[in-house]
Design goal:
It contains 6 helices and 5 strands; from the N terminus they run αββααβαβαβα. By secondary structure, the chain is an alpha+beta fold.
Length: 276
């Protein structure tokens, strides 16, 4: 019995030691697991905090990026807009410069044409004076004013008193004049008849208007039909007593007023075309 009791006690002791060891091992495992769990939880919380911070920073960066992108787009729009305005201004400036250059050229062309016409007029003036050199100043004068040449022939050079028929001496003067006019292609010729203020009333002439007009047409007829001046170049008109060059109170003044004027003017067609 003693042996049996001893064996049972030994068995109980051994069994008790094994159970305690298992318990301790299990407890140690549990505590280790709890420790790892706390560490994991701590790490997880830290990672969540870091993730939250990262998200916030990412959100801030996105906002900054959005603002920066909008700013860049606005800058580009502004830049493109400014470039467009500059291009428009450059184009407008170029157009103005082209127009200015065109106007300057037109002005220069006009000045050249005016100078050329002035030269032609001076040459024509010289030719007329040479052609009509044989007549004295009481019979005929050649003057230049306002860009025109005036050849004034007295009535005694061209006509008998109260007549519209050109006499022999007058035809000689018109022949010399016609030789010069026929060489000019770009002139207009105006034949103006003038009288003094003494009234006239005859079977042929009702008044000074009639006399001045018919004398002018008589001169035109001789220049064109007898001496070959181009008819389209000549325009006759009568001024009557209304454009005197001297006083009608004296015989000398009235003699000056009784005249036929051949007015020679350069054609302005080219100048008008340039101005348009």
């Amino acid at each position: 019995m003693k042996k049996i009791i001893l064996v049972c006690c030994l068995f109980v002791a051994v069994t008790s030691c094994v159970s305690n060891r298992k318990y301790m091992m299990a407890e140690n495992g549990r505590l280790a697991a709890l420790s790892r769990e706390r560490v994991l939880n701590k790490n997880l919380a830290k990672e969540k905090e870091v993730n939250t911070e990262l998200r916030e920073r990412i959100a801030a960066l996105l906002n900054d990026t959005t603002r920066m992108g909008e700013a860049i787009r606005e800058y580009r729009r502004s830049l493109y807009s400014n470039m467009s305005e500059q291009e428009k201004l450059s184009l407008l400036l170029q157009e103005k410069m082209d127009k200015l250059a065109e106007r300057e050229k037109t002005i220069q062309d006009l000045q050249d044409e005016i100078q050329a016409q002035t030269s032609r007029l001076e040459n024509l003036m010289s030719s007329l004076k040479d052609a009509l050199l044989g007549f004295n100043s009481d019979e005929l004068t050649v003057t230049q004013k306002n860009g025109k040449i005036y050849v004034a022939m007295s009535d005694k050079l061209l006509f008998e008193s109260g007549s519209a028929s050109v006499n022999k001496q007058g035809k000689e003067a018109l022949a010399k004049l016609a030789e010069v006019l026929k060489k000019q292609n770009d002139i207009d010729v105006f034949i103006e008849g003038h009288t003094d203020n003494k009234p006239i009333r005859t079977v042929q002439f009702k008044d000074n208007w009639d006399l001045s007009v018919i004398r002018a047409t008589s001169v035109v007829r001789i220049l064109t039909k007898d001496y070959g001046v181009e008819a389209l170049q000549i325009l006759p008109c009568g001024r009557g007593e209304f454009m005197p060059v001297d006083s009608n109170d004296t015989a000398e003044g009235r003699a000056h007023n009784r005249r036929t004027e051949i007015i020679i003017a350069p054609k302005l067609d080219k100048l008008l075309q340039m101005l348009r």
